[in-house]
Specification:
Length: 64
């Protein structure tokens, strides 16, 4: 699952780069990260974004 998430992020980032996408300097998350969160929610959590947030927090802080 981790490898697939990394692939989704890399593809999203590469696509935005090839489109010369501009990101605001005040952002806290890159647009590729936002796209990855949405795609992962659809693939693994049946569209529930809270599931992705819990997954990300547990992965970062080692909970669960």
């Amino acid at each position: 699952m981790d490898t697939q998430i990394i692939v989704v992020y890399c593809l999203s980032d590469d696509m935005l780069t090839s489109l010369h996408h501009y990101e605001d300097k005040q952002r806290q998350m890159s647009d590729a990260e936002v796209m990855t969160t949405a795609i992962v929610a659809m693939l693994y959590f049946k569209g529930k974004f809270m599931g992705v947030n819990v997954f990300r927090i547990s992965d970062i802080y080692g909970y669960g």
